Amino acid sequence: MSQLDDDKGFWPLVRIVQAHPDGSITGATEFSLKHFGGEVPNTGDTIGIVWDSESEYEFQVVLRRYFLTEWKGRSYWVVVVREADPSPQFDAICTNALLTTDLFRAAAMNAPEKEQVARLRQLEGEPTPGIRKFKPKVREPAEPYDDDLP
Predict the structure, then answer these.
(1) Could you give phi then psi for residue 100, rounded to 5 degrees?
(2) DSSP letter string, 23-35
(3) pLDDT tens digit string along 22-54?
(4) Lower Cβ count inside 10 Å, N or C end of the chain?
(5) DSSP codes of every residue in 70-129
(6) Cα dist. 116→62, 69, 97, 105 in Å?
(7) What is the pTM of this model?
């Protein structure tokens, strides 16, 4: 992963590490700053990842962030997180996120307009009478992430 982006110039990397009750720090996950929309997650923010269904997810709370520069010149943010306490809201957030992605995919694949409208109405809390309630599509674990839907 490069620290340079031809369009934007220098983008420092963001490393996510997890703090444990015994004081240890683990993890070696590294992202570009672009991954977070150009903003470094800040203290109190919650970072989430949805695995392959609305009930399989992981949320972490940001405890602190540090900006480090190594002697050899490599610079990066280190974001220290802890596992988030369970919350029923996480289920709702993940279900909504996956249903929204499924709506965008249905539109990109030219699904029938009736289906697209029904999906949108469901997301707005107004299910369409006579149309089944949609459930999020189960993702395959190996399904690549792609900003270009479908």
Answers:
(1) -65, -45
(2) S-EEEEEEEEGGG
(3) 999 999 899 998 899 889 999 999 999 887 666
(4) N
(5) -TTS-EEEEEEEEEPPP-HHHHHHHHHHHHHHHHHHHHHTT--HHHHHHHHHHHTT-PPT
(6) 36, 48, 16, 10
(7) 0.71
